[in-house]
Structures
1.
Amino acid sequence: MNLVYRKARSFVLLASGLSAVVLNNTIDGYSAMFGISLILSALITMLFLFVYFDKPLNEKVLMEMILDGFSGIIIFTYNQSNDSFFLTVFSFWIFINGLFYLSSGILDKSNKKYLPLYTIVGIVLLVFGFMPLHMNEESHEIIIYLIGFAIIVYSSSNLYLLFKKKSEIY
């Protein structure tokens, strides 16, 4: 199975994470960029599902597409969307992706060779899911760096596994 679509999804998220780090301490407007990158990544995953509909599919890829699409759309459709709502949606998104990593590493026997990577990345993403919700006003300046770093860790680990395993990450 060709993984071009899965790699494209990871590159879109990597670009989003890198742009968060480049924004220089401002979270203003990043929620729209993050929402667009999530919707785009959900569309790329949907295209992947349409192209390879007759091949065996891991359920986590479908759940990942639904998570990306739901999180991206809710950022744009919620009428009182502000920075704290964006942080809640981001925390939910990164926490669930951490659960996907952790469960794939621990429960799937085909990922046994990469168990330390799956476990470490899963735990790190779970921690990143809780951190933005517990930031106070004094530390609010560094939160965009935290978000960017979390997305960079997630997308770069996806890319590493896609290139190293030459198969689906889940």
2.
Amino acid sequence: MKKINSIWYGGKVILTGAILAFGVPAGIGILPGESKILEVIRMGSFVLGMLILLGFGIWLAIELHQDKRINGFYDRNRNRKLKIDEGIYECQACGSRKVKEKDERCSVCGVRFQK
């Protein structure tokens, strides 16, 4: 699953939620006259918009927490080589996969590997 802020729909979701939560009820409130149907539509739109905004906020908070944990992992393992497959390693500093088991330095970025 792609991240929210890497597929560019976060702003569209926030705009949709804001329109449903505030725009539609304000527009109905401006209309003259009282109607039970319009009142139900106004309240329904507000509730739906707030649910969208709340759900999206929770989703974003979860994603930001995951990002923080992933960044912490990479910070702790930055100058190490990670075994990917038999005889194939990856430099955690630059992502190069041209690292061999016996290498003490990355041939791409030059970082010295910790043991």
3.
Amino acid sequence: MDYRKIAAMFLALTILLLSACNKDNNNKNYPGTLPDQKITNIYETSTFKTEMLNPVTHEWKVIAEKNNARHLAHEFTWVGDRLESMEDHNLGRFYSFNYDEYGRVIRIICDSDADYSRTLTYDEEGLLARCEGTLKDNNGKLISSQALIYTWENGLLKRIEEDYWSQLPDEEEISRKTDRVYTWQDGNVVRTIRTEHTGDKVVETQYDYEYGTAVNPLHGFVFLVLPEKGIIFDYEGIDGLSKNLPTRITSPTSTRYEFSYTGTPLTSFQKHIIGDNPTLRVNTDYFVELEYAK
């Protein structure tokens, strides 16, 4: 028996199998991490108005009003099919993205000290499992950290657990744990419940969502699965979750949000935010325009 020949054949077969496995691994059908549509620019025009009720005449009087001219609010830079960067002109923050061999976002880098750069890891199904970020001062001392753990069920995000800590210069130490629970129906988030634990204080906030038929161009964007990092909705980071766009958002507070949309894919929408009580009401109107890569 020629053992050398058998060994050579076995080695060749092993290499062939390993090559096939690597080829399969590099072509895994993982969920995408980028928005469904290649948005390039988002423009905003806004108006803010505060009114107070006159207790004698029972008439509403405008006590403050401000108009913001049309401006570029968010800018996306694409290289081929990959999103290279996103700039938030409203907050003055620039984000860039790093990818793994499967084309998934694994690193979000922010150039602003007011925000965190983050590292993203995924589970065996390719769903976001954990996100971690830290902030250090000029001497390398840790002054803030955040860890997010994601729980999924049948491909839908069910929960985000957040562990946050910070001790900024000349400020008290803050340690906070937040639990966010998502309720789904027909591919859309219809309710979010956020429970914050800070020391002995517990605060729970609930939002309920109503939907129309408008399709969400930001659906699937993993960056927007970060809590309170929305672009359209400003909070809770649901922009990348629901397949459709909400027409109305309500909460137990006096604030409510109403939306109307134009275009397929979405080219513009209006967002109306109303916050009122018996003697004071605040109205905010946004007109938002979207442009896409050609």
